Amino acid sequence: MKILVVNCGSSSLKYQLIDMADESVIAKGLCERIGIEGSKLTHQPAGKDKFVAENPMPDHKVAIQMVMDALQDKEHGVIASTDEISAIGHRVLHGGTTYSESIVVNEDVKKVIRDCFDLGPLHNPANLMGIEACEATMPGKPNVAVWDTGFGMAMPEKAYMYAIPHEYYDKYGLRRYGFHGTSHMFVSGEAIKFGGLDPKSAKVIVCHLGNGASISASIGGKCVDTSMGLTPLEGLIMGTRSGDVDPAVVQYICNKEGKDVNEVLNILNKKSGVLGMSGGVSSDFRDIEAAKKDGNHLAEVALDAFIYRVAKYIGAYTAAMNGVDAIAFTAGVGENDKASRKAICQYLGYLGVKIDDAANDVRGVNAVISSADSKVKVMLIPTNEELAIARETKRLTE
Ligand code: AMP
Fold first, then answer.
1. Which end of the chain is less packed: N or C, by CB atoms within 10 Å?
2. Burial (CB count within 10 angstroms: exposed 0-12, middle 13-18, buried 19+), residue 81
3. 48-53, long-range: CB within 8 Å, 24+ apart, which pairs?
4. pLDDT digits (tens, 9 = 90+) for 118-166
């Protein structure tokens, strides 16, 4: 069974064709600058040379057609015809309060994706375009929506309700949803398997630390809390996002700088985080670490604050679950940066967390990085959102 996984952004489309027999990636690629001049497809078939095509892609439908052509190309292709593709799995940002579970797309599902345009203004329209492009290009094939908000929907009311007038929840669904759900679902599940934990009761904290960063607490694979909120802005300090701030900061900047709320929200999303804190050094954690080594004080504070906030959330989530069995690190920083993992864990001595430096000297593979006498198992679990989407698609369409 071969499954195509599609992840559409407003001007991009990432794809992977996965052979579910052994979960191997047969081909993957990226369409960039869809709807903009200079569109480009980069197609990487496994074991063959990369193929780049620079053809105009006015919309996602043309992009999907180009992907299909690349997949079936005589030289760079990996399938003889689209008949070999059993189903298509789509990453969809927001399912609102309607969907927590992945679902085969029909008209009702498309309506919900459309109804949630306000909640996911950049992603939901693109996600719907990707689905409709696949429907047009491969009629009759099942399309499955896997929601980025799905994992967080298991949160109890006490965790997802904001302490604001209830009418805003009733009228607009204003609540905490959480994002990176596919990653948190995948990594918490893999951590339970890899760590030999009880799948029904394991208390797991997943630290997804990349350019976007979030943290989740789950018991037996069910989310009890997660750090992103109505939008991905809440929670941890990220590459360019502030994470938690006093909302009065918004009003203050508006008043002092003559900006409107949208402009300030743009600053909190795109110009804050370690980029903003470091005085503009970079949103890339490698650059921040290099600047800190060169003696840049603001970069040092940004990195310290990032680590400190992760450690604070781990403490809060341990309290929320009345304990923790495993902490798993994932995403760009979590998978590659042993120094950040160690620095976070140094705050966790009170939990009996002990890191084994030799075991922590690892990147990009499943590993236990805590010592044998650590009271909490600390792990590195590389995330694989595409595989998680493919597994969900297989489960629903087999
Ligand atoms: P992601 O969003 O998951 O792709 O993660 C991207 C982030 O991971 C970028 O900020 C990178 O700088 C960061 N990253 C990747 N490798 C390392 C590393 N070895 N040390 C620190 N940060 C890293």
1. C
2. exposed
3. 48/76, 49/76, 51/75, 51/76
4. 999 889 999 999 999 999 999 999 999 999 999 999 999 999 999 999 9
**In testing the pocket of ligand 1, which one of 179, 285, 292, 344 has its CB within 8 Å of the most ligand atoms?**
285
CB 351 within 8 A of CB 299: no
Parallel/antiparallel/unpaired status of strands 24-32 and 40-45? antiparallel
Residues annotated as part of the active site: 148
Residues with Cβ within 8 Å of 87's Cβ and at least 6 positions away in sequence, in order, are 3, 4, 141, 142, 143, 144, 393, 394, 397
pTM exceeds 0.90: yes
CA nearest to 97, candidates 112, 79, 80: 112
282-286 own/partner pairs: CB under 8 Å, 24+ apart: 283/211, 283/239, 283/240, 284/211, 284/239, 285/239, 285/332, 285/333, 285/337, 285/340
- What percentage of the chain carries pLDDT values higher than 70? 100
Ligand 1 mutation target, pool 211, 215, 236, 333, most atoms within 8 A of CB? 333
Does the beta carbon of 210 sit less than 6 angstroms from any atom of ligand 1? yes
Q: pLDDT tens-digit profile of 235-259?
A: 999 999 999 999 999 999 999 999 9
Distance 332 CA to ligand 1 centre (A): 4
Q: How many beta carbons lie within 10 A of that of residue 23, not counting itself?
A: 13
Q: Which residues pair with 62 in a beta bridge?
A: none
